[in-house]
Input
Amino acid sequence: MKINTVRFGEIEVDDDRVYNFVIPIIGFNELRKFVIIDTGKDSFFKWLQSVEDPGLAFPVVSVFSMNVDYSIDLPDNVVDMLKIQNVESLLVLNIASIPQENPQGTTINLLAPIIFNLDEHLAGQIILSGSGYDISFPLFKTN
Output
C-alpha cells in the first residue's frame, strides 16, 4: 500500500507492517493505523507514522537499547486486548520529545510506552499507573 506522509513523502508499505491500535495513542483516539519507519543511517530513532493522518509522525525509541532500568507489568485486560501469547512477540517503544532549538534536551515518555504485538499486528499506548516512571525522562545527561 502507498501512504502519503508530510515527513517522508509517498512511501510504499507492506500491509503486514501496519499496526492496528486497539488501545489508542493518548490524545489521538480517532487514529488507529500506524507504521514504524526506520530511517536507517544508524539513527537511534524510528518514526511511528500515522497511516490516516499524513502530518502525524512520532519519534520513538526503544529504552531497552539504552542503559535504563525499566520494566513493564501489563494488566490482564491489556494482554487480552493485544492478544499477547508470549513476550518474544512484543516490541516496546517510547515516544520522544525533541526540542527543535535544543536536541540535547530530548526526553522520552517512560510512563506511557507503546506496546506492539508483532505477531498479531496490534498495538496500544499503555499508562503504567503507579510505576513512578516519568513522562519527561532525559535522554542525554547534561552537566
About this structure: The chain is about 5% helix and 35% strand. The first helix runs from residue 76 to 81. The CA atoms of residues 28 and 40 lie 27 Å apart. The longest strand covers residues 90-97.
